[in-house]
Amino acid sequence: MTDLKINMQRLQQDINDLAQIGRDADRGLHRRAFSDGDRAGREWFRGRLEAAGLDVWQDGAANLHGRLDYDGKRPVVAMGSHLDTVPGGGPLDGALGVLIGLEVLRTAKENAVDLAYPLEVIDFTDEEGRFGGMFGSQAMAGKLTPESISHARDLEGVTLVEAMANWGLNADDALAARRDPHSLHAFIETHIEQGPVLDRRGLSVGVVEAITGLFKWEVRLKGQPNHAGTTPMDMRIDPFQGLAEFGGEINRLIEEHGSPNSRATIGRVELAPGAANTVPGMATFSFEVRDTDEKVLTALAHAARRTLSSLARRRDLMFEFDVLSEIDPVRCDPGVVQTIEAQAERMGLEYITMPSGAAHDTQSMSRITRTGMIFVPSLQGRSHSAAEWTNWEDIETGANLTLQSALALAARQ
């Protein structure tokens, strides 16, 4: 099967067709989990699975599965990603991995590939985080609890239970979506890089070896609100000055305690009471740190806490923080990585082995099976916007690498 190739014209049509679903006047896509746009995208995908003659199944977490040669006895080689988007998102984030997985199954079926292991494509529910992120893959990995399901809500206060009920679904059924690890032989996710590395190097593919973990805090520095005109500078207890000092310390923290894969971001700041003529009494801000090494993440967390405590004491501020989320980093399976690399080399592709700085459903799947990821370049590194795009020739290369890698794992030798 070394000369087998996907039908690029068909894949291109699928990408273009799906990109019209949920499109708004801003040209961005609006397919948040359990929204009307998400429902329309899922119905379209279900139709494509049925048209391909695949076995179609939806589990309790609303993950949508298409299967080829499935008999319930042999473990499957699965592929997939997600069709939901961030508000105003692009046409490829998540969707590309689902559509390439579908195309792999169609190509194998049309060419009557003799499979030692069945093939499966999965559209995971709510990867983008309307209700917390990676809901569908966490359900498959057995990471959900009744409490986490009942407490999940979006920024508008809509609960996951309500959103699923509006679709006629029972949210507690997500607990039954837990997948037996013995039912999976391997999992591959093909995804746009969402960063600039491949594009700047002029490479069509990257082979992912590790996926970042992260911790996200809400930090509060409490000071003393006061009149901006009558309070001398040396008499102020100003939490914004503490925030500014901490912001200036981030590069030092990374240099001393991080790695080349470390990222630290203050992405949201709120000052209270928020008047132009008032020294703020509180600075509340987000602090998110990512790395592919759990020990590095721990070291950065300790160092950040020490730095915040120290500057708060010097400035007479009170320091508090809440942990909003923690995701463990994972390493892709060396055997699956080697399989992808071997197929890339056989195809004559130039590639790099690289980390993923974004979280993906593969992180959840790594808890229950061997995993690997294939990246294709993002033009100018742009993603989560209507400007997100990848050249067709790079998509075709990534799709054929996925095909050959999946068949190398699944085809009878």
Description:
- This is Allantoate amidohydrolase.
- The protein has two domains: 8-212 and 329-410, Aminopeptidase (3-Layer(aba) Sandwich); 213-327, Alpha-Beta Plaits.
- Helix 1 (8-18) runs antiparallel to helix 3 (95-110), helix 3 (95-110) packs across helix 12 (392-410) and helix 8 packs antiparallel against helix 9.
- Strands 1, 2, 3, 4, 5, 6, 14, 15 and 16 form a nine-stranded mixed beta sheet that branches.
- The protein has helices spanning 8-18, 36-51, 95-110, 135-140, 146-151, 160-165, 197-201, 239-257, 294-314, 334-346, 361-365, 392-410, and strands at residues 55-58, 64-68, 76-82, 119-124, 184-192, 205-211, 213-222, 226-227, 263-265, 269-272, 278-279, 282-291, 318-327, 330-331, 351-356, 371-376.
- The radius of gyration is 23 Å and the shape is elongated.
- The mean pLDDT is 95.
- It is an alpha+beta fold and 413 residues long.
- It contains twelve helices and 16 strands.
Give me the secondary-structure topology.
Layout: H1 8-18, H2 36-51, E1 55-58, E2 64-68, E3 76-82, H3 95-110, E4 119-124, H4 135-140, H5 146-151, H6 160-165, E5 184-192, H7 197-201, E6 205-211, E7 213-222, E8 226-227, H8 239-257, E9 263-265, E10 269-272, E11 278-279, E12 282-291, H9 294-314, E13 318-327, E14 330-331, H10 334-346, E15 351-356, H11 361-365, E16 371-376, H12 392-410
Parallel strand pairs: 3-4, 3-5, 5-16, 6-15
Antiparallel strand pairs: 1-2, 2-4, 6-14, 6-16, 7-12, 7-13, 8-11, 9-12, 10-12
Helix pairs in contact: 1-3, 3-12, 8-9, 10-12
